[in-house]
Design a protein that fits this description.
The N terminus is likely disordered. By secondary structure, the protein is α+β, with helices and mostly antiparallel strands.
């Protein structure tokens, strides 16, 4: 879940993607601190092939954990992220995997606001979501995401809000 959230939140720095109509967000490159609060409900999508590889005991434990964790939960994460010029010009890819299994579409954009739609599909799992981002200044942003993940017989919904603040022009070891 953290990987999915990180990929979505990094998108706040997205600039001019393939579409000519996209206007880059007016934010600084460098080290950013992101604080995200996510509420999720439902069971994470687990590919049936994965469950089929487990022993009966392992599968029973996995299904028990999934059932126990399917209720609504809210978590808050704070982490650092590096936003590069390339991120602003090309934007990070949408979704938990950085490959061609994911697409993203900028629905609308200005220097201070952007709405995105993203989809991923692989390993019999699907992610579909939207993100709204607002640059409050060149050094701060806020936004929200709504996402649905499904696979096998499971569906999970997640809603997040986040704030991000610029820390420094150099990222150091942070990627």
């Amino acid at each position: 879940m953290k990987t999915i959230l990180l990929a979505l939140i990094l998108t706040f720095a997205a600039g001019a993607w393939a579409a000519d109509k996209v206007q880059p967000m007016n934010v600084k490159t460098g080290l950013w601190e992101v604080t995200a609060t996510t509420t999720r409900a439902g069971t994470p999508p687990i590919p049936p092939e994965y469950l089929a590889r487990l022993t009966p005991e392992q599968r029973a434990k996995a299904e028990e954990r999934m059932k126990a964790n399917s209720g609504e939960k809210t978590i808050t994460n704070t982490y650092k992220s590096c936003v590069t010029k390339d991120d602003l010009e090309n934007g990070p890819k949408w979704g938990p995997k950085q490959d061609d299994a994911c697409t993203r579409t900028v629905v609308s954009s200005t220097g201070t606001k952007m709405e995105l739609h993203g989809k991923c599909e692989y390993e019999n799992r699907k992610w579909d979501g939207t993100m709204l981002i607002e640059a409050l200044s060149t050094e701060s942003a806020k936004g929200s995401t709504k996402m649905t993940a499904s696979g096998g017989n499971n569906t999970m919904n997640a809603n997040s809000t986040f704030t991000a603040k610029w820390l420094a022009p150099e990222c150091g070891e942070t990627k």
